[in-house]
Specification:
374 residues; mainly alpha; two-stranded antiparallel sheet
Length: 374
């Protein structure tokens, strides 16, 4: 059965949507760039689970030498379980989502990526019928154009989540698929890395999606979505959309005052097409599909959305929130950037400012707080 990628439940982190105002992963950094909680720790119960799993894997055609190589150095990653339990932080309004998904930086980098790889992207559009800008936008959302492909060992990540059991059957399927990738010689086990939940490469394919849709576009005998050359990964994303019903020459939709889709009350409305629903096969979220479509339009030269979003629950517009972040930083309470998205860094800065002024420490933005910073 085909597994929709949204069932992976990775939230914004898997999309490369790291806003400057959001928190970084917990745990001290290690020399290889991973937080300490994403490095293996002893866990006898996990070891016992792996021992029993190995027999199930052999029964499904995974060879013992493959298992030996794949699990060499693998282990239980406590940070994977923590992140799997703590995905509510990724619930954002459409305005906040688009502020990250179609930020000025992401748009600029997308235009540069499209120009740099125009030959490949145009050829993929010809072959699969998928607009080159849509392919580029998915690349931008999934891995920030290859800059954030993930460094977590996939065997460790998927086996940890399979052992943990909350979605045990699903992640055992992903683990078996990852082992087949190693066994087929697409990539050595030591180089099989991805997100904390095992989404891989430039376009963040889960292992089962890789098995079904990955393409050897370069013709070197390997479907390599991990390398610095993004060709195979971009072709794989195009093939995924084409095989899920993408209609050549049809747009995704766009902002329309008469559109039936309004994800945020008082905000823009959107009219969508069948290709919008195909984008949702990649990630079953209206916000994600709008993000891909809007980013693709911006990459192609279009401007921002015309309809403003209403003030948030605290009575602040995006302009107000950016001003708040800028003023806090100017006072020495660094919000780590000013994008108008209120995340943990901004909340920490607010609390520090409130404490310094003898105010109730809430970490909550407000018009009164903004006025106090004038």
């Amino acid at each position: 059965m085909q597994i929709n990628r949204r069932l992976f439940g990775l939230g914004l982190a898997s999309l490369g949507l790291t806003a400057c105002s959001r928190s970084m992963p917990s745990g001290a950094s290690t020399p290889n760039g991973l937080p300490a909680d994403l490095r293996p720790v002893p866990n006898p119960a996990y070891d016992a689970w792996v021992a029993s799993f190995r027999e199930r894997a052999v029964a499904q055609g995974i060879t013992r030498p493959t298992l030996d190589v794949a699990f060499r150095g693998a282990g239980y990653l406590p940070g994977v379980v923590t992140r799997d339990r703590n995905q509510t932080e990724f619930s954002r309004s459409l305005e906040d989502y688009l502020a990250i998904a179609a930020s000025d930086e992401r748009v600029q980098k997308g235009r540069a990526a499209l120009a740099r790889h125009r030959g490949t992207l145009t050829a993929l559009e010809d072959r699969y019928g998928v607009d080159a800008r849509i392919i580029t936008a998915i690349w931008g959302l999934e891995s920030f154009y290859g800059e954030r492909r993930g460094e977590v060992p996939v065997i460790s990540a998927t086996s940890t989540l399979a052992f943990d059991g909350r979605r045990g059957q699903f992640f055992e399927q992903q683990l078996i698929a990852a082992l087949r990738i190693v066994q087929n010689g697409d990539i050595p086990a030591a180089q099989l890395t991805g997100s904390w939940a095992g989404a891989m490469g430039h376009t963040q394919f889960i292992p089962t999606s890789y098995q079904q849709f990955a393409v050897d576009y370069t013709g070197d005998g390997r479907r390599d979505i991990w390398s610095d050359d993004p060709s195979d990964a971009l072709a794989s994303a195009a093939a995924y959309l084409q095989r899920n019903g993408w209609q050549r020459g049809l747009g995704w939709g766009g902002e329309s005052p008469n559109g039936s889709l309004q994800p945020q009350a008082g905000g823009p409305r959107f009219a969508t097409t069948a290709n919008f629903r195909v984008i949702k096969r990649y990630n079953n979220s209206d916000a994600y599909a709008i993000g891909v479509g809007h980013l693709s339009d911006r990459i192609g030269g279009a401007g921002p959305l015309r309809t403003p979003f209403p003030p948030d629950a605290n009575g602040l517009t995006k302009t107000d929130r950016i001003s708040l972040q800028q003023r806090l930083t100017a006072r020495g309470f660094d919000t780590q950037g000013a994008d108008g998205v209120i995340g943990s860094n901004t909340e920490t800065a607010i609390r520090a400012y409130q404490s310094s002024r003898g105010l109730p420490v809430t970490g909550t933005p407000s018009q009164a707080l903004l006025q106090s910073l004038r």
